Amino acid sequence: MAGQTLYDKLWNAHEVTKRDDGSSLIYIDRHLLHEVTSPQAFEGLELANRAPWRLSANIASPDHNVPTVTKERSAGVTGIKDKVSRLQVVTLDENCTKFDIAEFTINDARQGILHVVGPEQGLVLPGMTVVCGDSHTATHGALGCLAHGIGTSEVEHVLATQCLIQKKSKNMQIRVTGQLGAGVTSKDVVLAIIAKIGTAGGTGHAIEFAGQVFEDMSMEGRMTVCNMAIEAGARVGMVAVDDTTIDYVKGRPYAPNESQWPQAEAYWRTLYSDDDAVFDTVVEIDGSQIAPQVSWGTSPEMVVDITQSVPTPDQAIDEAQKEGWLRAYTYMGLEAGQKITDIQLDRIFIGSCTNSRIEDLRDAAAVIKGRKVADNIKEAIVVAGSGQVKLQAEAEGLDALFTEAGFEWREPGCSMCLAMNADKLEPQEHCASTSNRNFEGRQGNGGRTHLVSPAMAAAAALAGHFVDVRTF
Ligand SMILES: CC(C)[C@H](C(=O)O)[C@@H](O)C(=O)O
Ligand code: SF4
């Protein structure tokens, strides 16, 4: 028998039963809940007169709708101006109280974006199956677990049964070899992967990221990459367990205690793809060739190197791509062939579940070196992914570096990643954003998003336009 991939191992360890139609019933270890996709699930549970099947598997926190301005945040839920947003957060609080589910509420020091909070608290551990009513749940695969987003009806299903009906995906390995150059980060790696394979490249697959670049990468970096597996078309992204994983988990509040640790670690150490495991699809990229990336268009695959230009229609591989580009030039207000470094910016957003961990903030802060945000930038905000990241950054003095340069230092939440709270772009504004999605209207009606790394966003804030952080 051929060896098993990491995905096979995780799947087999959680398969309760195979069904006649080729799907399987899978046991779920951890369920993360936020205010947007849980209300109807709780309502369904109540109507069916059911209780959550395993309370301790669930953890909730509001993240999408919370205000990030300190004055509004300190007022708690009453500080949320938008009625619908407030109702969602209040409803989450009420449901968690009613069903006895643990919640890091709006002003809890542990509140934050679930995909930052889960690993940080040790609530997500290697070997687990992890779900959340949120497509970026793939993030958690960085810890060597099987994690993916689910819809609201599945949220109800998991609450009620702790199980899910799933169809197994194909195995894909993306190998990034060699070493990254200075100034090139995990965000550039994942954007370069998507530029290469396209937003449908991973469709139907569970992606394992492997190779020297991921072996050398920190847990924060691995989370950035797995986070965007969904933008590469896959629901699942994973990295094998190694010393980096084990060291990251050790000592986290909900991680196994000392007496449980040896047993847990012994199991976790088995979570890698066997040498003779077979992948349905393999992609290889030379990491040393990756440059800082910038998205110019309205899809995460419309990405080029900072040294390049907006592509011209004759470079499109087919008519469909050409059509997409023509539409994107207009929406983004860019000319074909225009240099990326000529794109002037209006706002800067450093945050989101892709890039709001401590290492991301350190990377951005390191670029500042006493310089100031350029005059043409209307607003530059830094939004830590969780209360814990914010505290850590403040302990390191990063907040002062940012505010002295002219950035605003905000409270944790999804913020300007999506236009669901008060942090939005105005029509036609260009934003250098460390988030993961750049479709039309994502950051506000008519807003123009450019996806970049935290270091590139910081450099752009200081220059007022995109610059190559390697020579800035
Ligand atoms: C609101 C939520 C359902 C959504 C998701 O699933 O990803 C959001 O987090 C996003 O990033 O678009
Ligand atoms: S930060 Fe953005 S991508 Fe992540 S969960 Fe929030 S809205 Fe979705």
UniProtKB/TrEMBL annotation:
GO terms for molecular function: 3-isopropylmalate dehydratase activity; 4 iron, 4 sulfur cluster binding; metal ion binding. InterPro entries: 3-IsopropMal_deHydase_lsu, Acnase/IPM_dHydase_lsu_aba_1/3, Acoase/IPM_deHydtase_lsu_aba, Aconitase_4Fe-4S_BS, Aconitase_4Fe-4S_dom, IPM_dehydratase_rel_enz, IPMI_cat. CDD domains: IPMI (cd01583). SUPFAM superfamilies: Aconitase iron-sulfur domain. Binds 1 [4Fe-4S] cluster per subunit. Residues 8-464 form the Aconitase/3-isopropylmalate dehydratase large subunit alpha/beta/alpha domain. It catalyses: (2R,3S)-3-isopropylmalate = (2S)-2-isopropylmalate. Keywords: 4Fe-4S, Amino-acid biosynthesis, Branched-chain amino acid biosynthesis, Iron, Iron-sulfur, Leucine biosynthesis, Lyase, Metal-binding. It comes from the Bacteria. Heterodimer of LeuC and LeuD. This is 3-isopropylmalate dehydratase large subunit. It comes from Psychrobacter pacificensis.
